[in-house]
Specification:
Structural class: alpha+beta
CATH architecture of the largest domain: Roll
Number of helices: 7
Largest sheet: 7 strands, antiparallel
Helix content: 40-55%
Radius of gyration: 26 Å
Distance between the termini: 48 Å
Shape: elongated
Strand content: 15-25%
Length: 229
């Protein structure tokens, strides 16, 4: 990572001294340099917006030439640590705000959804709708099942889909989020249900990866294909 940042730093320094416009007729080295610089600029955009260009280039030059630093190692370490601490505090505040907003959206959605015809709500708060009734057996918590599914956020964004991949998934009923564990045991083989899963029965206030934010209410269309031996 340090090498990448150094490369970005050098490119920034060069850009201050050379303002030539790069296009598809420019030499290959210039096109590569521009492309690399653009990619690094996007990657480190949040950090670069907090950088004072003159001070940055002064540090870059002194470091590249091995000159005596204007700050001691301890002072530089302290400055970097303070920035990291401030940045993490900002991220935490933004994360908490997102969690609060998602929580309110989920509560409002589920409250309205519960009023709709065909929507059933369990004691845990799981809501479900029967799309197709199967005739087979119901799985237990220890059963292994094969299912097709598609998961969506409240805004309709699909974050995962075995249907799109064209490949069902197999797993034990107890090894998934609690909303699924409960919902699957309501289904018979061959049935299709739509689950409306509150955050507490899904990924909670931490979310999952970049796709599922904190306190997200999720919607899953699930087809129970079969209970496996």
């Amino acid at each position: 990572m340090k090498k990448i940042i150094l490369g970005l730093s050098i490119l920034m320094a060069v850009s201050h001294s050379q303002a030539a416009t790069v296009n598809n007729k420019s030499p290959q080295k210039d096109q590569f340099s521009y492309s690399y610089g653009y990619a690094m600029g996007k990657t480190y955009a949040d950090i670069l917006k907090d950088i004072h260009p003159e001070a940055f280039l002064q540090g870059l030059q002194q470091g590249a030439l091995g000159q005596k630093t204007s700050l001691t190692d301890e002072e530089m370490a302290k400055a970097l640590a303070q920035y990291k601490q401030q940045s993490e505090a900002k991220q935490l505040i933004a994360f908490q705000q997102t969690a609060q907003e998602n929580g309110k959206l989920g509560e409002a959605f589920l409250a309205e959804n519960a009023k709709k015809s065909g929507i059933m709500t369990t004691k845990s708060g799981l809501q479900y709708q029967i799309l197709q009734t199967g005739q087979g057996k119901k799985p237990t918590v220890t059963s292994k099942v094969s299912v097709n599914y598609e998961g969506r956020l409240l805004d309709g964004t699909v974050f995962d889909s075995s249907i799109a991949r064209g490949q069902p998934v197999d797993f034990q009923v107890s090894q998934v989020i609690s909303g699924w564990t409960e919902g699957l045991q309501l289904m018979q083989e061959g049935s299709k249900y739509r689950f409306f899963i509150p955050a507490k029965l899904a990924y909670g206030d931490m979310g999952a990866g970049d796709s599922i934010g904190p306190n997200s209410t999720l919607i899953f269309d699930v087809e129970l294909l079969k209970i496996l031996p």
